[in-house]
Amino acid sequence: MDSLFGNLKVKSGAAFRFAAGCLSRLALTKGSIRSQILIFCLAMSAVAVALGGYSILGIRHAGDLVAKTFDESLMSINYARAAGADFATMRVASSQRLLTTDRGDPRQSRWPD
Questions:
Q1: Backbone angles phi, psi at 83, to 5 degrees
Q2: pTM, full prediction
Q3: Helix H or strand E encompassing 38
Q4: Which residues contact residue 74 at a Cβ distance below 8 angstroms, ignoring those fewer than 6 apart?
């Protein structure tokens, strides 16, 4: 396990040295210190912009996931509870109708439609 992480550190270190070498050669070919500082500042700005864009995409993905959770799973629970409440109301109405001894005119319903 240690050799795996050690190998990963070596690879990431090599990639960093390669990128730094490419940037330093690019800066050295341009000449002055002012141009080198400008190039490195622009490179760091590009890295910051890339990280900002990636974080925006991550936040948007998390928002979509939350919306999907509420729209699908929790709404189905809400519909099931509403159906349960409707069935309970119908059960109470049916029980009251069965317990009623008044057999009046069947066309006149005591229950509102």
A1: -65, -40
A2: 0.42
A3: helix 33-68
A4: none
